[in-house]
Amino acid sequence: MTPRAGRGIKPPHAHPCARTRLMQDKPQHFASDNYAGICPEALEAITRASATGSAPAYGDDPWTRLAADAICTLFETQAAVFFVLTGTAANALALATLCPPYCSVIASDIAHIETSERGAPEFFSGGSKLLTPPCPDGKLTPEAIRLCRRKASSPHASEPAVVSITQPTENGLVYTLEEIRALAEVCKEYGLKLHMDGARFACAIAALGCTPAAMTWEAGVEALSFGGTKNGMAVGDAVVFFDRSLARGFAERAKQAGQLASKMRFITAPWLAMLKSGAWLHNAEHANASARQFAQAVETIPGVQIAWPVQSNAVFLLMPEQAMNSLRARGWRFYTFFGAAARFLFAWDAQSAAIEALAADIRACMAQLPAPSP
Ligand SMILES: *Cc1c(COP(=O)(O)O)cnc(C)c1O
Question: Where is the Aromatic amino acid beta-eliminating lyase/threonine aldolase domain (predicted)?
Fold first, then answer.
C-alpha cells in the first residue's frame, strides 16, 4: 500500500506517553524515510547554487555535469547518467527504455513497481507487462525467473525482456553479491536486461560494505535507479545506465514525461555535495544503525515479533492489531505492509531518543493489552 497523500502530520495528542513528552515542538516519525527533512549537505548545496545567480536551465549547467561525473567516479565507469524527480519516474522510464512494449518485466510480487507505482512502468513503456512470481521473502530468485520464462514462452504471451530487483528489498532485505550474480547469470542466459531499483541503494552499500561497482555492473546489473530523496535530499533520483548504448531514448522519454527539471541545478548540486562529502554513505550508515538500535530495543518486548531480519534501515513488527491502534492513538504514524506487519523506516536524521521513545510506547501498548483468556 502506498501512503495516502495530503494528510498532514497532526501534532501528537496531549497524552502522557513517551512520544508527547519528547517531541512537542519537533515531531519525528518513522513511517517512512521520506518523512525526513533535507540533510545539511544537500540544503547548503541548494543555497550555494542559488547564490550564484543565473545558470543555464534543463541540466546544461556545471553542477549537473559534475554530479554526473561524480556518479561515474563513484561507480568507476563511464555510465550514462540522468536525473529525474521521483523514484517512480526513474523506474518507469528506465524500464520503458529497456523493455519493448510487447515484452514483460519480471519482478518480485512485493516490488515497488508492482505494488506502488500505479502502473507507471506499464504506462510509460506503452504496453509491457509485469510478471510477478510470488517471492516468499521478497527476493527474486533464478528459479522464479526460469518459471516466468517457461510460462511466457508462447508467441501469444509477453516475452520477458527485463528483470528488476529492488536493493534493499521492500521488506528491508539485502541481496548478497552472490545472489545478484546468480540472477545476472540467468538474465544473460535468456538475454534479459537486469535493472536494479535502488531507492535505498546507499543503505545496501552501507550494509554490505562493498563498492557501488561490485553491487552493480561488476555483478551484471545494467541499469540502476539510484535514490537520492530517501537518502536525505529534497527531491531527485538518478538513473544510471552502465552500458551507455542502453540509454538510447531515455532523455527524450524523460522530457516527454515531464521529468526534465528546468532548474536542474537544485537537484544536481545536492547530488554533487552528497557524493563529494560522503554524506550519502554516512546518512545510510546512520539509518541502518538506527534500525538496529530500534530492533534491539523492541526484540525483548513480549508478544512483539520482528518479521524480517534487520539488514538495512527497515524494521517490520508483528504485533496485535489492538496494540497497533493504541500506538497510533499515542500519535505515532506507521504503515502496515506484507502480512500486516508494522513498518518502521529510519532516515539520516533519526534521533536516538525518538527511537527509544517509540520502543517505550510499543512496550507500554503491549503491556496494556488484556491478558489472553485461559
Ligand atoms: C520510495 C521508493 C521508490 C520511489 O518512490 P517515489 O515516491 O516515486 O519517489 C521506488 N522504489 C522503492 C523500493 C521505494 O521504496
Answer: 30-318
Of 33, 88, 91, the one to substitute when testing ligand 1's pocket (max ligand atoms within 8 A of C-beta) is 88
116, 174, 313: which to mutate for ligand 1, most atoms within 8 A of CB? 116
Rounded to the nearest angstrom, the distance between the alpha carbon of 87 and the centre of ligand 1 is 5
- pLDDT tens for 279-299 read 999 999 999 999 999 999 999
Fold topology of 40-279: Aspartate Aminotransferase; domain 2 (3.40.640)
Query: Per residue in 349-361, pLDDT tens?
Result: 999 999 999 999 9
Domain 16-37+285-367, CATH among 3.40.50.11930, 3.90.1150.10, 3.40.190.10, 1.20.810.10: 3.90.1150.10
pTM: 0.93
Instruction: Print burial letters for 326-349: b (CB count within 10 Å at least 16), e (below 16).
Output: bbeebbbbbeebbeebbbbbbbbb
Q: Is 166 in the pocket of ligand 1 (CB under 6 A)?
A: yes
- Does any ligand 1 atom lie closer than 6 A to the CB of residue 114? no
Residue 34 alpha carbon, nearest atom of ligand 1: 1
Q: Give span(s): CATH 3.40.640.10, the chain.
A: 40-279
| Percentage of residues of the chain with pLDDT beyond 70 | 92
Q: State whether the beta carbon of 112 lies less than 6 angstroms from ligand 1.
A: yes
Residue 337's pLDDT is 80
Place of cell 545496501: 204
CA 353/CA 26 separation, integer angstroms: 12
